[in-house]
Specification:
The complex is a heterotetramer, with 2 copies of chain A (220 residues) and 2 copies of chain C (217 residues).
Chain A: H1 3-12, E1 20-23, H2 27-30, E2 42-45, E3 49-55, E4 73-81, H3 84-92, E5 98-101, E6 105-107, E7 112-113, H4 128-134, E8 137-141, E9 153-154, E10 167-171, E11 175-179, E12 185-190, H5 196-201, E13 207-215
Parallel strand pairs in A: 1-2, 1-5, 5-8, 6-9, 8-10, 12-13
Antiparallel strand pairs in A: 2-3, 3-4, 6-7, 10-11, 11-12
Helix pairs in contact in A: 3-4
Chain C: H1 8-13, E1 20-23, H2 33-41, E2 47-51, H3 60-66, E3 70-75, H4 82-90, E4 95-97, H5 100-112, E5 116-119, E6 133-136, E7 139-145, E8 149-160, E9 165-166, H6 173-180, E10 182-193, E11 212-215
Parallel strand pairs in C: 1-2, 1-8, 2-3, 3-4, 8-10, 10-11
Antiparallel strand pairs in C: 5-7, 6-7, 8-9
Classes of the chains: A alpha/beta (220), C alpha/beta (217).
Chain lengths: 220, 220, 217, 217
Amino acid sequence: MNSREIIARRVALEFQDGDVVNLGIGIPTLAANYLPEGVQITLQSENGMLGMGPAAEPEQATNDLTDAGGNPVTILPGGCFFDSSVSFGLIRGGHVDKTVLGALEVDANGNLANWMIPGKRVPGMGGAMDLVTGARKVIVAMEHVNRNGSPKILQDCKLPLTAKNRVSLIVTNLAVISVKKGGGLVLEELAPEVSAEEVIEQTGAPLEISPNLKPMPILD
Amino acid sequence: MNSREIIARRVALEFQDGDVVNLGIGIPTLAANYLPEGVQITLQSENGMLGMGPAAEPEQATNDLTDAGGNPVTILPGGCFFDSSVSFGLIRGGHVDKTVLGALEVDANGNLANWMIPGKRVPGMGGAMDLVTGARKVIVAMEHVNRNGSPKILQDCKLPLTAKNRVSLIVTNLAVISVKKGGGLVLEELAPEVSAEEVIEQTGAPLEISPNLKPMPILD
Amino acid sequence: MKNKVFSAQEAVARVKDGDHVMVGGFLQGGTPDVIVRELIRQGKKNLTVTSNDTGREGCAVYDLVFAGNVDRIIADYIGLNPRTGQMMIENPDSVQLFPQGTLAEKIRAGGFGLGGILTPTGVGTIVEQGKEKITIDGKEYLLELALRADVAMIRAHTADEAGNLIIRGTARNFNVVMAFAADYVIAEVDEIVPVGELDPDQITIPGTLIDAIVKGG
Amino acid sequence: MKNKVFSAQEAVARVKDGDHVMVGGFLQGGTPDVIVRELIRQGKKNLTVTSNDTGREGCAVYDLVFAGNVDRIIADYIGLNPRTGQMMIENPDSVQLFPQGTLAEKIRAGGFGLGGILTPTGVGTIVEQGKEKITIDGKEYLLELALRADVAMIRAHTADEAGNLIIRGTARNFNVVMAFAADYVIAEVDEIVPVGELDPDQITIPGTLIDAIVKGG
């Protein structure tokens, strides 16, 4: 199982039947492939849809039905469409149960930085700030360290924030870490063949070890 | 021609082809019956419709299609429905060209009082404050004096206001009076068989007499 | 899929004494009469009701106010309900009036996660009392705060079993914004169809907002 | 009834150099490509463009920015248009970024006659720079001001000759709020039908807001 699959499979276990979920592009989107049996979720796409389905086949593709990446997609039975102001009303108003996003950095206070690197890359925040501010539960799904092997989980984010104090769970290829209300990180689960020491070493903030520390329940 | 008809006929001449108009209950609503030839207007009803048509026949009446008085009504071809937030978006956003309302009092600064009499009658403002604040042109249509014969056009309203400085034209059974930007009333037109002196006498604020003072152009 | 279809009795049983209940509709247009009358039948007490108006004779909200179930009212028009007028005389704080467009925006803000909105409506009138005034480019606005409730009772024409609603005609009124602005949302409908029968382009209110569907009269 | 149906050339001729133009769409979804490209063809200069994004290769807004017609951009996402990124490096004031939900609300406020809205989005981030912060019940909000434009270019599927629009699928995006927020609104559509053919319950945007209808590709 590769890193992406480990993360996606573990994120999928966070979903409960009936949840409305917005998934960021990349690893978060993969999570929808690993839903536990009996769990049905409704995908919200911030460009204006609930009940988003799989990518459209070439012959049904239209620019009037696209996902948040602009790619032709489908809608499932029971879904519906709305404009951007309503879409972000749903997001900001707490009508999205969970959002899963990638991060450049996430910190011990649940702060998230995922939208810009000053002087280097300023793509714009898109819908990320609203999603992280408004969704009931914010889950970060990412590789534990960056390409240079440096920690992405820090005591304090150095990059410009996406939102403050909003992340409550971090799922990586190495571990599941929860963020305590009021701050502080707790190591909850370990990926297959990963030790607590390894996780501590690759994390840029102190980790409390959960008394119930366990392996990620992803192997089935 | 009775007072109500004089007022309604004169108000109707204010409408231009293509206007979006919201008409208050009573005399203002009658104005739609006297549209000049070639003038087509779209009626906005603040409970959620553009293109309001005549009252519904008993057999087509439904509570899912009513006017702002709660009475069953029809919609004309080219009309459409929307919710209250959109309806008042149209009103507040300047997308209604003209609104015509009754008044308890109107004054030399274009202030309007038409929603409450303290200690006596507090029905609520309904949509009146938004209409008077947001419509591009606010026309007051009313009897010149109240039931006791006292002026309703005053130097300063005494009753609680509906909105400040928004009325630009007053059409009564005696006269047409315009409100100057920055304040001041100008007698523009006289109803049939009414003299300027009579109007001045029954008005509670100084009236400038227009150099173009003329009879109301309502007889056809 | 969770079942969302309930009897009026079951759906309204979850409302608690003292709850703030938003009721959609505009006079007799587009009101959820069956579930509002069920509030009376179940004798819910000390309610706060937010509604465009408190109805006229024959309306369910009119009867709810007369039945004495309501301690506090938020509305824009109460002129056809003498009992509401009497409440206001006896205790001015028991009835709070807002301009209709302001009330719609307050509820929308509550449901959309906004803290409030700036509106020019009410500037220079008694509506501005106690409110913050903010001047932008020389124009004055009132800061009107968001409004939410414990319960929303709304009406639609058709629901699917997932709660997606289609509202017809002028019945959208306050029903749409209220669906976003309460913790528990009951929709009274004429017709319930299986999921997949409604055209996703025609759905007025997303089903994910709806907790209970009740078939009305 | 006034004629509202024009060629792209006629409709876009009314846009002036220096105008602020809002363009509906979301990347390649629901964009009014024909009329945006007509801005390039007519060589309109010094435009300000407000749009969700500045497109990716193949998008009309992408080409508009590359063609040099645009001096200033207001958007929430510019990551797939290197020319916009370059503008931002050369002159940081030439590109203004807002969170997507904030941008939608700012435009809606502009069209709906509101002065602005209070949003929690952006609190504690660089988005709050230069903005008023207002605390309500212990929670902080940013005051985000209304945004209007001279011109809105939007896309719909069907128009009637009065300008009533039906938009399909996810193409509603920014097209809906922009229709309210500009002095001159051009709608690009696939199909134009006589007045009376559209179901009034299904109309996405009222025709009274639309000044010009252009039949697209």
